[in-house]
Automatic annotation (TrEMBL):
A divalent metal cation binds at E282, D283, D306. One of its GO terms (biological process) is malate metabolic process. InterPro entries: Aminoacid_DH-like_N_sf, Malic_enzyme_CS, Malic_N_dom, Malic_N_dom_sf, Malic_NAD-bd, Malic_OxRdtase, NAD(P)-bd_dom_sf. GO terms for cellular component: mitochondrion. Divalent metal cations. Prefers magnesium or manganese. This is Malic enzyme. The keyword Oxidoreductase applies. Residues 307-561 form the Malic enzyme NAD-binding domain. It catalyses: (S)-malate + NAD(+) = pyruvate + CO2 + NADH; oxaloacetate + H(+) = pyruvate + CO2. PANTHER family: MALIC ENZYME-RELATED, NAD-DEPENDENT MALIC ENZYME, MITOCHONDRIAL. The active site is at Y139, K211. Belongs to the malic enzymes family. Keywords: Metal-binding, NAD, Oxidoreductase.
Length: 621
């Protein structure tokens, strides 16, 4: 990591390098006309204090066979590389051919992980060019298998490991990662609720790493300005605990006061060490996910992706479907099948949106119905329900004579506009349930979201066939088109990268409900659906995810500014000699351009050879 890192585009700003030197590379002369900037900027030459094998072993600096002859001479690489100089295009072609030789998704996941640890530009450019094929390899569903096998497939550490048995070491361990201005975005997990496969203990570090890869791929956050953290509080996965190769604590998960105090110390240390960083809670269990969000959301810019990220992307799909069929949100009823963190997060987001459209909270909640393994959540179940679930409990006397454990009977009674699955119960949306939905809706909206794919409540082909292709479908995992109908994936990568990027660039003090709602409305407005034609799908295609994230981020930034939650305009323009303050354009299109020029892109840039300065350069990567 480096200190003195520029956060904004250098274009048009007066600047000078932290250390003097000469950039080396194909476009050096052109780029010398730009201000010189530190290595973690998004354009211009990059300061590099490394040489020789240290340089080749740095995934942020390494270009592999693409180092030019000038760079090889300047940085002591002669004799350490084959003589032929390749372009990035040639490297991508070679890497993709190597990938295609591999037969299983998990083998491909291993290959991509190794590449990410060697050369981040090549990794992200390869994924970008084959995004639809490779996102399922580096994220869900394949990443779930990699996480489950983490201790057996371990090669080298990434991120920060915090141990509940050593709570007083938290600040020191975070400090070993970098300085106060080194980190923009942090993903933390305690590994309890991983991707539909449950408690994976120390393997939770991999989900944090995967989410950060998507933050860079989709949201343009610099890969050198992020940090993955795992909180090792034990595991209740007995198979892991008995495994002699398991690398985490083997005792049962710590709960209660000790857990809460550990989290408090983590948050306090994080705020002290990285005061501007956005915190992303990932895959915490039902017992902790919501309480942690409620406890800390007004202390620092944080959000829970399983609750708010999932809720945002599903809400956007729902709005797009309603608009396509000329239906009104306030007249809609929603049945959420699976009332865990994701399900309740979706319900909460729908309520927030209904309230923004003029409904009261009670009116909005009356339109939302939730089911879990016990059936429809009702008042008599409050003792066994979380506080978040209790908000959606229905009066028992209104359901007398109805088998509230039967999904088809509940659908028949409610006549929901939209059926959402977060249950991990494969096949729960069977033909009887779907046809009952269709009986009450000319265009039923059905979202089977459970991961991994084998746990989906239904497959798109069946949903379309059972409704004569009238259902509007979005899923939680990637599916191939069905007879020309593109199946949108309600993947959180459509929501959290844009929300996170917006919060980072705004220097948000918190992430408010209105900021999330602004992201939802913007994402919904980008739906490719056309009047009378539902074949394009509810959400934009994955191939334009960078543009989608930039627009979502723009909406988030403008909302943060409107609410007075943005600190960015209190900061000086980086490297300015005149002391000007940053000014963010209020016009959407101009603000969008301001966002785009700050998004990192996987391109090789000329290196600026500098001497190592311990006050500026640290070597976490």
């Amino acid at each position: 990591m480096l200190r003195c890192i520029r956060r904004f585009s250098s274009r048009g700003a007066a600047a000078s390098a932290v250390a003097t030197g000469i950039p080396v590379g194909r476009e050096a002369k052109r780029l010398m006309s730009k201000p010189l900037v530190t290595r973690l900027s998004v354009d211009g030459p990059i300061e590099c204090p490394l040489s020789g094998m240290q340089l080749l072993n740095s995934p942020l600096f390494n270009k592999g066979s693409a180092f030019t002859q000038e760079e090889r001479a300047a940085f002591g690489l002669e004799g350490l590389l084959p003589p032929q100089v390749n372009t990035l295009d040639e490297q991508v072609e070679r890497a993709y051919k190597q990938l295609c030789y591999l037969k299983t998704p998990l083998a491909k996941n291993d290959f991509m992980t190794s590449m990410r640890m060697q050369n981040k530009v090549l990794f992200f450019e390869l994924v970008r060019r084959h995004i639809r094929e490779l996102v399922p390899i580096i994220y869900t569903p394949t990443e779930g298998d990699a996480i489950a096998a983490y201790s057996h497939r371990f090669r080298r550490p990434e991120g920060v490991f915090l141990d509940i048995t050593e709570p007083d070491s938290i600040e020191e361990r975070l400090a070993s990662y970098g300085e106060d201005k080194d980190v923009d975005y942090v993903v933390v997990s305690d590994g309890e609720g991983i991707l539909g496969i449950g408690d994976q203990g120390i393997g939770g570090i991999r989900i944090a790493i995967s989410k950060l890869a998507l933050m860079t791929l989709c949201g343009g956050i610099h890969p050198g300005r992020v940090m993955a953290v795992t909180l090792d509080v034990g595991t209740n996965n007995k198979k892991l605990a008995r495994d002699e190769l398991y690398m985490g604590n083997r005792f049962a998960r710590v709960r209660g006061k000790q857990y809460d105090e550990f989290l408090d110390k983590f948050i306090k240390a994080l705020k002290k060490r990285f005061p501007s960083a956005v915190l992303h809670f990932e895959d915490f269990g039902v017992e902790n996910g919501r309480p942690l969000l409620d406890r800390y959301r007004n202390e620092l810019p944080c959000f829970n992706d399983d609750i708010q990220g999932t809720g945002a992307v599903v809400m956007a799909s729902f709005l797009a479907a309603l608009k396509h069929t000329d239906r009104n949100l306030l007249d809609s009823k929603v049945l959420v099948y699976g009332a865990g963190s994701a399900g309740i997060g979706i319900a909460d987001q729908i309520v927030n949106h209904m309230v923004s459209y003029g409904a009261s909270v009670d009116e909005a909640r009356s339109k939302i119905f939730t089911m879990d393994r016990r059936g429809l959540i009702m008042d008599s179940m409050r003792a066994g329900s979380t506080r978040a679930q209790q908000a959606y409990a229905k009066p028992d006397d209104e359901w007398e004579g109805v088998n509230t454990k039967s999904l088809v009977e509940v659908v028949s009674r409610i006549k929901p506009t939209c059926l959402i699955g977060c249950s991990t119960q494969a096949g729960a949306f069977n033909k009887a349930v779907v046809q009952e939905m269709h009986k009450h809706n000319e265009r039923p909206i059905i979202f089977p979201l459970s991961n991994p794919t084998r746990l989906h409540e239904a497959v798109p082909e069946d949903l379309l066939e059972w409704t004569n292709y009238q259902a509007l479908v979005a899923t939680g995992s990637p599916f191939h088109p069905v007879n020309g109908y593109r199946i949108s994936e309600n993947n959180n990568c459509f929501s959290f990268p844009g929300i996170g990027l917006g919060a980072v660039l705004a220097r948000a003090t918190i992430i408010s409900d209105k900021m999330i709602s602004a992201a939802v409305d913007q994402l919904a407005s980008l739906s490719p659906l056309k009047p009378g034609d539902s074949r394009p799908g509810l959400l934009p295609p994955l191939e334009v995810i960078n543009d989608t994230s930039a627009k979502v981020a723009t909406a988030v930034i403008l909302q943060a500014l409107e609410e007075g939650l943005a600190r960015v305009e209190h900061e000086a323009v980086p490297n300015s000699t005149l002391g000007e303050r940053v000014r963010v354009p209020r016009d959407f299109d101009k603000c969008l351009e301001w966002v785009k020029v700050q998004m990192w892109k996987p391109v090789y840039r000329p290196l600026l050879k500098v001497q190592h300065d311990p006050s500026v350069h640290t070597f976490q990567h």
